């Protein structure tokens, strides 16, 4: 099962300790074959919406920055529970904030 794990933006810059701990976590997940992809996202982003035949493109940043995704990891695990456990480990490393997990179909 594949899951997209997303870290919601916090606006706080990571420190050296966080980089080191995340590096170890990422290396462990990569070595075990769980981690398929990871990355940070541009905080501004671009929104594309449609209504009927009208397509609107709006460049960010957007006022609800707390709802923007700051980074992601695509993982392949055997169950949702395993994905949740990875998210728990991630949250213990990065501290306060919000992560979201979505199963990827197809």
TrEMBL record:
Every YCII-related domain range: 1-90
InterPro entries: Dimeric_a/b-barrel, YCII
Highest rank taxon of the organism: Bacteria
Family named by the database record: Belongs to the YciI family.
Protein name: YCII-related domain-containing protein
